[in-house]
Design a protein that fits this description.
globular; single chain; Aspartate Aminotransferase, domain 2; alpha+beta; four-stranded mixed sheet; about 45% helix; binds pyridoxal-5'-phosphate
Protein backbone atom coordinates (compact mmCIF):
# COMPACT_ATOMS: atom_id res chain seq x y z
CA UNK A 1 0.00 0.00 0.00
CA UNK A 2 1.40 3.40 -0.87
CA UNK A 3 0.55 6.67 0.84
CA UNK A 4 -2.09 7.63 -1.75
CA UNK A 5 -3.88 4.33 -1.16
CA UNK A 6 -3.52 4.82 2.58
CA UNK A 7 -5.15 8.25 2.27
CA UNK A 8 -8.03 6.90 0.19
CA UNK A 9 -8.67 3.93 2.47
CA UNK A 10 -8.14 5.96 5.62
CA UNK A 11 -10.90 8.37 4.58
CA UNK A 12 -13.15 5.42 3.76
CA UNK A 13 -12.37 3.82 7.10
CA UNK A 14 -13.21 6.96 9.07
CA UNK A 15 -16.48 7.25 7.14
CA UNK A 16 -17.16 3.57 7.75
CA UNK A 17 -16.69 3.92 11.50
CA UNK A 18 -18.81 7.08 11.66
CA UNK A 19 -21.56 5.26 9.73
CA UNK A 20 -21.26 2.23 12.03
CA UNK A 21 -21.75 4.38 15.10
CA UNK A 22 -24.65 6.18 13.44
CA UNK A 23 -26.50 2.95 12.67
CA UNK A 24 -25.41 0.85 15.64
CA UNK A 25 -28.73 1.47 17.41
CA UNK A 26 -30.47 -0.53 14.68
CA UNK A 27 -28.36 -3.63 15.31
CA UNK A 28 -29.07 -6.35 17.88
CA UNK A 29 -26.94 -5.45 20.90
CA UNK A 30 -25.79 -8.94 21.85
CA UNK A 31 -24.30 -11.06 19.12
CA UNK A 32 -26.32 -14.06 18.03
CA UNK A 33 -23.24 -15.87 16.78
CA UNK A 34 -22.81 -19.52 17.61
CA UNK A 35 -19.35 -20.89 18.42
CA UNK A 36 -17.45 -21.47 15.18
CA UNK A 37 -19.65 -19.21 13.03
CA UNK A 38 -16.83 -16.77 12.28
CA UNK A 39 -14.09 -19.35 11.85
CA UNK A 40 -16.22 -21.29 9.36
CA UNK A 41 -16.45 -18.21 7.12
CA UNK A 42 -12.71 -17.55 7.03
CA UNK A 43 -9.93 -19.38 5.18
CA UNK A 44 -7.86 -21.52 7.53
CA UNK A 45 -4.62 -20.65 5.72
CA UNK A 46 -3.18 -17.16 5.14
CA UNK A 47 -3.36 -15.67 1.62
CA UNK A 48 -0.26 -16.27 -0.48
CA UNK A 49 -1.02 -13.49 -2.93
CA UNK A 50 -1.78 -9.91 -1.80
CA UNK A 51 -5.46 -9.07 -1.49
CA UNK A 52 -7.21 -5.76 -2.05
CA UNK A 53 -8.02 -3.89 1.14
CA UNK A 54 -11.52 -3.33 -0.22
CA UNK A 55 -11.97 -7.12 0.00
CA UNK A 56 -10.94 -7.02 3.64
CA UNK A 57 -13.58 -4.36 4.27
CA UNK A 58 -16.19 -6.43 2.48
CA UNK A 59 -15.41 -9.39 4.75
CA UNK A 60 -15.49 -7.11 7.77
CA UNK A 61 -19.08 -6.20 6.88
CA UNK A 62 -20.12 -9.68 5.84
CA UNK A 63 -18.40 -11.88 8.42
CA UNK A 64 -17.25 -9.82 11.37
CA UNK A 65 -19.79 -7.09 12.11
CA UNK A 66 -22.82 -9.43 12.21
CA UNK A 67 -21.00 -11.47 14.87
CA UNK A 68 -20.12 -8.58 17.15
CA UNK A 69 -21.71 -7.62 20.41
CA UNK A 70 -22.01 -3.87 20.13
CA UNK A 71 -20.49 -2.22 23.18
CA UNK A 72 -21.11 1.29 21.83
CA UNK A 73 -24.84 0.56 21.42
CA UNK A 74 -27.04 2.87 23.51
CA UNK A 75 -28.94 -0.19 24.78
CA UNK A 76 -25.79 -1.87 26.07
CA UNK A 77 -26.48 -2.23 29.80
CA UNK A 78 -24.22 -5.24 30.41
CA UNK A 79 -20.98 -5.55 32.43
CA UNK A 80 -19.76 -1.93 32.55
CA UNK A 81 -19.60 0.93 30.06
CA UNK A 82 -16.50 0.75 27.89
CA UNK A 83 -16.81 4.10 26.23
CA UNK A 84 -14.78 5.12 23.23
CA UNK A 85 -15.29 8.86 22.73
CA UNK A 86 -14.57 10.07 19.20
CA UNK A 87 -11.68 12.23 20.36
CA UNK A 88 -10.11 9.29 22.09
CA UNK A 89 -10.55 7.10 19.02
CA UNK A 90 -8.64 9.70 17.02
CA UNK A 91 -5.95 9.79 19.68
CA UNK A 92 -5.64 6.03 19.41
CA UNK A 93 -5.29 6.28 15.62
CA UNK A 94 -2.55 8.86 16.11
CA UNK A 95 -0.71 6.51 18.42
CA UNK A 96 -0.90 3.70 15.89
CA UNK A 97 -0.06 5.97 12.99
CA UNK A 98 2.99 7.45 14.67
CA UNK A 99 4.14 3.94 15.50
CA UNK A 100 6.59 4.98 18.19
CA UNK A 101 7.65 2.87 21.17
CA UNK A 102 8.71 4.01 24.59
CA UNK A 103 11.45 1.61 25.59
CA UNK A 104 13.14 4.41 27.48
CA UNK A 105 12.66 8.17 27.76
CA UNK A 106 15.24 8.61 25.00
CA UNK A 107 13.46 6.23 22.62
CA UNK A 108 10.62 8.77 22.39
CA UNK A 109 10.87 11.60 24.91
CA UNK A 110 7.45 13.07 24.14
CA UNK A 111 5.78 9.72 24.73
CA UNK A 112 7.06 9.59 28.30
CA UNK A 113 6.53 13.24 29.13
CA UNK A 114 3.02 13.48 27.69
CA UNK A 115 2.13 10.39 29.71
CA UNK A 116 3.48 12.01 32.87
CA UNK A 117 1.58 15.24 32.19
CA UNK A 118 -1.73 13.58 31.31
CA UNK A 119 -1.62 11.14 34.21
CA UNK A 120 -0.91 14.17 36.42
CA UNK A 121 -4.01 15.88 34.98
CA UNK A 122 -6.12 12.85 35.81
CA UNK A 123 -4.66 12.74 39.32
CA UNK A 124 -5.87 16.31 39.82
CA UNK A 125 -9.24 15.60 38.19
CA UNK A 126 -9.93 12.84 40.72
CA UNK A 127 -8.55 14.92 43.59
CA UNK A 128 -5.62 12.71 44.61
CA UNK A 129 -2.80 14.53 46.37
CA UNK A 130 0.53 15.07 44.66
CA UNK A 131 1.98 12.30 46.82
CA UNK A 132 0.76 9.97 44.06
CA UNK A 133 2.53 9.20 40.80
CA UNK A 134 0.88 7.31 38.00
CA UNK A 135 1.56 5.43 34.82
CA UNK A 136 -0.61 4.01 32.05
CA UNK A 137 -1.00 0.23 31.87
CA UNK A 138 -3.12 -1.84 29.51
CA UNK A 139 -5.69 -3.17 31.98
CA UNK A 140 -6.64 -3.18 35.65
CA UNK A 141 -5.60 -6.81 35.74
CA UNK A 142 -2.02 -5.84 34.82
CA UNK A 143 -2.06 -2.93 37.27
CA UNK A 144 -3.21 -5.23 40.03
CA UNK A 145 -0.57 -7.80 39.15
CA UNK A 146 2.05 -5.08 39.54
CA UNK A 147 0.49 -4.14 42.88
CA UNK A 148 0.88 -7.77 43.95
CA UNK A 149 4.54 -7.73 42.95
CA UNK A 150 5.01 -4.51 44.95
CA UNK A 151 3.17 -6.01 47.91
CA UNK A 152 5.29 -9.16 47.83
CA UNK A 153 8.31 -7.07 48.68
CA UNK A 154 6.71 -4.91 51.39
CA UNK A 155 4.39 -5.66 54.46
CA UNK A 156 0.84 -3.88 55.19
CA UNK A 157 0.45 -2.91 51.17
CA UNK A 158 -3.08 -1.70 50.47
CA UNK A 159 -4.17 -1.73 46.85
CA UNK A 160 -7.44 -0.10 45.83
CA UNK A 161 -9.25 -1.42 42.77
CA UNK A 162 -11.28 1.51 41.47
CA UNK A 163 -11.22 0.22 37.91
CA UNK A 164 -14.84 1.15 37.32
CA UNK A 165 -15.71 3.62 40.08
CA UNK A 166 -12.55 5.70 39.75
CA UNK A 167 -14.11 7.71 36.91
CA UNK A 168 -16.78 8.95 39.30
CA UNK A 169 -14.11 10.64 41.40
CA UNK A 170 -14.09 13.50 38.90
CA UNK A 171 -17.40 14.44 40.59
CA UNK A 172 -16.91 16.23 43.92
CA UNK A 173 -20.26 14.84 45.13
CA UNK A 174 -18.95 11.27 44.77
CA UNK A 175 -15.69 11.79 46.59
CA UNK A 176 -17.05 10.47 49.87
CA UNK A 177 -16.16 7.09 48.34
CA UNK A 178 -12.54 8.19 48.24
CA UNK A 179 -12.41 8.60 52.04
CA UNK A 180 -9.18 7.08 53.32
CA UNK A 181 -7.64 6.82 49.86
CA UNK A 182 -4.53 8.71 50.91
CA UNK A 183 -3.62 5.84 53.22
CA UNK A 184 -3.55 3.32 50.37
CA UNK A 185 -0.26 2.33 48.71
CA UNK A 186 -1.51 1.82 45.18
CA UNK A 187 -4.66 2.14 43.18
CA UNK A 188 -5.93 1.37 39.73
CA UNK A 189 -8.58 3.17 37.76
CA UNK A 190 -9.60 2.52 34.17
CA UNK A 191 -10.34 5.55 32.00
CA UNK A 192 -11.24 2.94 29.37
CA UNK A 193 -14.43 2.21 31.23
CA UNK A 194 -16.91 4.95 32.03
CA UNK A 195 -14.65 7.96 31.41
CA UNK A 196 -14.47 7.47 27.65
CA UNK A 197 -10.87 6.60 26.76
CA UNK A 198 -10.76 3.98 24.02
CA UNK A 199 -9.71 0.57 25.35
CA UNK A 200 -7.02 -0.01 26.60
CA UNK A 201 -6.08 2.62 29.14
CA UNK A 202 -5.67 1.77 32.81
CA UNK A 203 -3.98 4.05 35.32
CA UNK A 204 -1.82 2.62 38.06
CA UNK A 205 -0.96 5.07 40.84
CA UNK A 206 1.51 4.50 43.67
CA UNK A 207 2.72 6.62 46.52
CA UNK A 208 6.20 5.12 46.70
CA UNK A 209 7.63 5.27 43.20
CA UNK A 210 11.07 4.25 44.41
CA UNK A 211 9.66 0.99 45.68
CA UNK A 212 7.80 0.40 42.40
CA UNK A 213 10.95 1.00 40.38
CA UNK A 214 13.00 -1.16 42.74
CA UNK A 215 10.76 -4.17 42.17
CA UNK A 216 10.05 -3.64 38.46
CA UNK A 217 13.19 -2.14 36.97
CA UNK A 218 15.35 -3.76 34.36
CA UNK A 219 18.45 -2.17 32.98
CA UNK A 220 20.41 -4.19 30.42
CA UNK A 221 23.32 -2.36 28.80
CA UNK A 222 21.52 -1.63 25.53
CA UNK A 223 18.70 0.19 27.32
CA UNK A 224 20.91 2.46 29.40
CA UNK A 225 21.18 6.08 28.25
CA UNK A 226 22.95 9.22 29.35
CA UNK A 227 19.71 10.81 30.58
CA UNK A 228 18.65 7.94 32.86
CA UNK A 229 19.55 9.89 36.00
CA UNK A 230 17.25 12.82 35.14
CA UNK A 231 14.18 11.16 33.58
CA UNK A 232 11.68 8.41 34.24
CA UNK A 233 11.97 5.28 32.15
CA UNK A 234 8.41 4.04 32.35
CA UNK A 235 9.41 0.47 31.46
CA UNK A 236 10.48 0.37 35.12
CA UNK A 237 6.89 1.13 36.25
CA UNK A 238 5.30 -2.01 34.86
CA UNK A 239 5.81 -5.39 33.22
CA UNK A 240 6.16 -4.52 29.55
CA UNK A 241 9.33 -3.14 28.01
CA UNK A 242 7.65 -1.69 24.93
CA UNK A 243 5.17 1.09 25.68
CA UNK A 244 2.38 2.22 23.38
CA UNK A 245 1.65 5.94 23.11
CA UNK A 246 -1.60 5.48 25.05
CA UNK A 247 -1.33 8.94 26.56
CA UNK A 248 -2.48 10.41 23.25
CA UNK A 249 -5.99 9.04 23.52
CA UNK A 250 -6.36 10.30 27.05
CA UNK A 251 -4.89 13.68 26.11
CA UNK A 252 -7.28 14.04 23.16
CA UNK A 253 -10.25 12.97 25.29
CA UNK A 254 -9.58 15.37 28.16
CA UNK A 255 -8.81 18.31 25.89
CA UNK A 256 -11.80 17.80 23.65
CA UNK A 257 -14.34 17.13 26.42
CA UNK A 258 -12.89 19.27 29.18
CA UNK A 259 -13.47 18.28 32.77
CA UNK A 260 -16.91 19.89 32.59
CA UNK A 261 -17.99 17.78 29.59
CA UNK A 262 -16.92 14.56 31.28
CA UNK A 263 -18.63 15.55 34.52
CA UNK A 264 -21.88 16.39 32.73
CA UNK A 265 -22.01 13.00 31.05
CA UNK A 266 -21.33 11.06 34.24
CA UNK A 267 -23.98 13.09 36.08
CA UNK A 268 -26.47 12.31 33.31
CA UNK A 269 -25.77 8.60 33.76
CA UNK A 270 -26.12 8.70 37.55
CA UNK A 271 -29.44 10.55 37.12
CA UNK A 272 -30.63 7.92 34.67
CA UNK A 273 -29.67 5.09 37.02
CA UNK A 274 -31.50 6.82 39.88
CA UNK A 275 -34.55 7.27 37.70
CA UNK A 276 -34.58 3.53 37.02
CA UNK A 277 -34.09 2.78 40.71
CA UNK A 278 -37.06 5.01 41.57
CA UNK A 279 -39.27 3.20 39.05
CA UNK A 280 -38.27 -0.26 40.24
CA UNK A 281 -38.79 0.67 43.87
CA UNK A 282 -42.43 1.57 43.40
CA UNK A 283 -43.31 -1.25 40.99
CA UNK A 284 -45.10 -4.26 42.45
CA UNK A 285 -43.05 -7.42 42.71
CA UNK A 286 -39.80 -5.70 41.77
CA UNK A 287 -36.90 -5.14 44.11
CA UNK A 288 -33.73 -3.05 44.03
CA UNK A 289 -31.17 -5.31 45.67
CA UNK A 290 -28.24 -3.00 46.35
CA UNK A 291 -27.79 0.72 46.95
CA UNK A 292 -27.47 2.63 43.68
CA UNK A 293 -24.44 4.74 44.46
CA UNK A 294 -23.29 5.21 40.87
CA UNK A 295 -24.72 3.91 37.61
CA UNK A 296 -25.39 0.24 38.29
CA UNK A 297 -28.84 -0.94 39.32
CA UNK A 298 -29.21 -4.50 40.65
CA UNK A 299 -32.79 -5.68 40.36
CA UNK A 300 -34.99 -8.74 40.63
CA UNK A 301 -38.56 -9.40 39.59
CA UNK A 302 -40.16 -11.47 42.36
CA UNK A 303 -43.64 -12.61 41.34
CA UNK A 304 -45.81 -13.89 44.21
CA UNK A 305 -45.33 -17.61 44.88
CA UNK A 306 -41.96 -17.83 43.13
CA UNK A 307 -38.93 -18.39 45.28
CA UNK A 308 -35.74 -20.41 45.52
CA UNK A 309 -34.62 -22.18 42.37
CA UNK A 310 -37.88 -21.39 40.60
CA UNK A 311 -37.18 -17.69 41.07
CA UNK A 312 -33.69 -18.19 39.64
CA UNK A 313 -35.17 -19.91 36.58
CA UNK A 314 -37.58 -17.01 36.11
CA UNK A 315 -34.79 -14.43 36.44
CA UNK A 316 -32.48 -16.19 34.01
CA UNK A 317 -35.36 -16.66 31.56
CA UNK A 318 -36.46 -13.03 31.35
CA UNK A 319 -32.89 -11.72 31.15
CA UNK A 320 -32.08 -14.27 28.45
CA UNK A 321 -35.19 -13.27 26.51
CA UNK A 322 -34.17 -9.62 26.54
CA UNK A 323 -30.61 -10.42 25.52
CA UNK A 324 -31.69 -12.83 22.78
CA UNK A 325 -34.17 -10.29 21.41
CA UNK A 326 -31.29 -7.97 20.53
CA UNK A 327 -33.19 -5.05 22.00
CA UNK A 328 -30.95 -4.56 25.01
CA UNK A 329 -28.19 -6.38 26.82
CA UNK A 330 -28.07 -6.95 30.60
CA UNK A 331 -25.84 -9.09 32.75
CA UNK A 332 -27.38 -11.69 35.02
CA UNK A 333 -25.30 -12.27 38.16
CA UNK A 334 -25.57 -14.01 41.51
CA UNK A 335 -26.03 -11.90 44.62
CA UNK A 336 -26.22 -13.62 47.99
CA UNK A 337 -26.78 -16.95 46.27
CA UNK A 338 -29.68 -15.83 44.03
CA UNK A 339 -29.73 -14.68 40.42
CA UNK A 340 -30.55 -11.07 39.69
CA UNK A 341 -30.08 -8.64 36.79
CA UNK A 342 -27.43 -5.95 36.72
CA UNK A 343 -28.36 -2.89 34.70
CA UNK A 344 -25.20 -0.92 34.04
CA UNK A 345 -26.15 2.50 32.71
CA UNK A 346 -23.47 4.72 31.19
CA UNK A 347 -22.98 4.25 27.46
CA UNK A 348 -21.92 7.39 25.62
CA UNK A 349 -25.18 7.52 23.66
CA UNK A 350 -27.44 6.13 26.39
CA UNK A 351 -30.06 8.77 27.08
CA UNK A 352 -33.06 8.72 29.40
CA UNK A 353 -35.28 7.44 26.58
CA UNK A 354 -33.16 4.31 26.31
CA UNK A 355 -33.44 3.60 30.03
CA UNK A 356 -37.20 4.23 29.90
CA UNK A 357 -37.53 1.83 26.99
CA UNK A 358 -35.47 -0.76 28.84
CA UNK A 359 -37.73 -0.50 31.88
CA UNK A 360 -40.82 -1.03 29.67
CA UNK A 361 -39.13 -4.02 28.10
CA UNK A 362 -38.23 -5.50 31.49
CA UNK A 363 -41.82 -5.22 32.67
CA UNK A 364 -43.14 -6.68 29.43
CA UNK A 365 -40.74 -9.61 29.45
CA UNK A 366 -41.50 -10.50 33.06
CA UNK A 367 -45.24 -10.57 32.39
CA UNK A 368 -45.05 -13.33 29.82
CA UNK A 369 -42.96 -16.47 30.13
CA UNK A 370 -43.46 -17.35 26.47
CA UNK A 371 -40.19 -17.60 24.60
CA UNK A 372 -40.28 -15.42 21.54
CA UNK A 373 -38.31 -16.12 18.38
CA UNK A 374 -35.32 -13.82 17.97
CA UNK A 375 -36.21 -10.73 16.03
CA UNK A 376 -34.62 -9.36 12.90
CA UNK A 377 -31.64 -7.08 12.76
CA UNK A 378 -33.76 -4.02 13.51
CA UNK A 379 -35.06 -5.64 16.69
CA UNK A 380 -33.98 -2.81 18.90
CA UNK A 381 -36.04 -0.30 16.95
CA UNK A 382 -39.11 -2.52 17.05
CA UNK A 383 -38.77 -3.34 20.72
CA UNK A 384 -37.84 0.01 21.97
CA UNK A 385 -39.97 2.29 19.83
C1 LIG B 1 -13.56 -3.44 39.79
C2 LIG B 1 -12.89 -4.06 38.60
N1 LIG B 1 -11.64 -4.53 38.71
C3 LIG B 1 -10.99 -5.08 37.66
C4 LIG B 1 -11.59 -5.17 36.43
C5 LIG B 1 -10.82 -5.78 35.30
O1 LIG B 1 -10.43 -4.75 34.40
P1 LIG B 1 -9.47 -5.01 33.17
O2 LIG B 1 -10.31 -5.60 32.10
O3 LIG B 1 -8.95 -3.64 32.80
O4 LIG B 1 -8.38 -5.94 33.60
C6 LIG B 1 -12.88 -4.67 36.26
C7 LIG B 1 -13.54 -4.74 34.96
O5 LIG B 1 -14.30 -5.56 34.66
C8 LIG B 1 -13.55 -4.10 37.37
O6 LIG B 1 -14.78 -3.59 37.24
Amino acid sequence: MNSDEFRRLGHLLIDWIADYRAKVEELPVMSRAKPGDVRRELPAAPPVEPEAFDDVMRDLERVIVPRLTHWQHPNFFAYFPSNSEWSSVLGDYLSTGLGVLGLSWQSSPALTELEEVVVGWVRQMVDLSDAWSGVIQDTASSSTLIALVCARERAAWMHVDAAMAGSAMILPECRWMWKGIESADSLVFNPHKWLGAAFDCSLYFVRDVDHLVRVMSTSPSYLRTGSDHEVNNLRDWGVALGRRFRALKLWCLIREQGLSGLQARLRRDIDNARWLESQVKVASHWRVLAPVVLQTVCVRHEPPGLEGDALDVHTRAWVDRINASGAAYLTPAVLDGRWMARVSVGGLRTERRHVEALWSLMRRETKSESVRPPKGTNASKTELS
